[in-house]
Amino acid sequence: QSALTQPPSASGSPGQSVTISCTGTSSDVGSYDYVSWYQQHPGKAPKLMIYEVNERPSGVPDRFSGSKSGNTASLTVSGLQADDEADYYCSSYTGSNIVFGTGTKVTVL
Amino acid sequence: EVQLVESGGGLVQPGGSLRLSCVASGFTFSGYWMTWVRQAPGKGLEWVAYIKYDGTSKNYEDSVKGRFTISRDNAKNSLYLQMNSLRVEDTAVYYCAKGTWTNDYWGQGTLVSVSS
User: Fold this and answer.
1) Cβ <8 Å between B103 and A102
2) Which of A45, A86, A94, B52 fits a disulfide with B57 by CB distance 3.0 to 4.6 angstroms?
3) In this model, does residue B82 exceed pLDDT 80?
4) Chain A partners of B104 at a C-beta cutoff of 8 Å?
5) How confident is the model at residue A1 (pLDDT cuts 50, 70, 90)?
């Protein structure tokens, strides 16, 4: 199972929006609405930001939103803040296993 | 408050074995599937294995099949990962996480280094 494809980097100024893509196949992202997004700051454990494509856990700001079209899922961070600077990973259920994305480093300019 | 605390990591030679443990608290451990995820130094997240809430179903990433065994003891609120025939490429921080396709809580991780 190959990793889901994410852009290596993305950036935006404070207050702007950034969107990260996560491209899989018809066997994972395209077949299941079990796509999650995780934020990871350096040296820290990942934190769940979005689950089941577009659901936000309690405590996650509504600046974070998720969507999916075909084999590609997306995470949008609106109103960028300094603390949003981190690595972001998507993941998807494959029918038997779990596959993570390659990761995207978000930089707040 | 949900807490997951891993232990058991360390330095081991290629071909050696280690057993990782993860103690859970703050939720009904016996009611949830659990997962191990690893992260090699400077690399991305990689799913390793998950186990059903009662231990009757398990699944593994292809590269660890036959070498790693995931298990749990619900009476002790504990999750385990027995790692045998370790390879240099198994070097990583290993995280335990609650859930399967949605991991809503993660431990702090334990570092496994495989080197001669």
Assistant:
1) no
2) B52
3) yes
4) 48, 51, 57
5) confident
